[in-house]
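Fold this complex.
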Amino acid sequence: MLHAGGLVLPRAFYRRPVTEVAVDLLGQHLCHGDVVLRVTEVEAYGGLEDSASHCRFGRTARNEPMWQAGGVAYVFLCYGVHHPLNIVTGPEEEGAAILIRACEPVAGLEPIRARRGGKLEGPSLLNGPGKVAQALGVDLSFNAHRLYEPGGLELREGPRPGAILRGPRVGVPYAHPDHQLAPLRFAIADCAWVSHRDSLCVTTSAIHR
DNA sequence: AACACGATGGACT
DNA sequence: GTCCATCGTGTTA
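Structure:
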């Protein structure tokens, strides 16, 4: 297996507050077969009283993986077409996860392009949650998959990013205004492989750790 | 049992 | 900028 990076991230990495993990997820490598993607943009969901989260109605059949202990995938059907990939965080019963919104290719550009339709190039290949999942070959069968176990879909250590941008989450107009505005989207600054760059601002390092 | 709607993306004006 | 495919989920009755 091609891994283009460090060790598989251990369970303890995921079992922390969702915003901490979200920031630390930037730069890490999602690996599946020959495809390696560097995470460039994420969104945090869940935690306490988040009306944008799929956990807002409590435990249901769909969101069950979100209530598991951190380190598993949460994949859902979006608009009947897409299968966005989330990474569950925190302890059991927390109901929190991080949506992978965009990535940068590290390896496997050919299979990525083939899965994405053949003729695309540049950021439009991977700047959106549905695009990332499609490029990785992730579908509903990966729901609740353990990312800390080598083999299959896994998350490995990648190079740490420099400056980080943050801003409101995308596509949650149904949420409470406070939750729409909450700066829970994070991205690597000076990176072209990001979606909706306009609504992001530079952060101080004080927001994490 | 019926219904409204979505953590999007691609095509098109 | 606009429009809409597509289907499972959660809500309501």
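The two ends of chain A are 32 Å apart (CA to CA).
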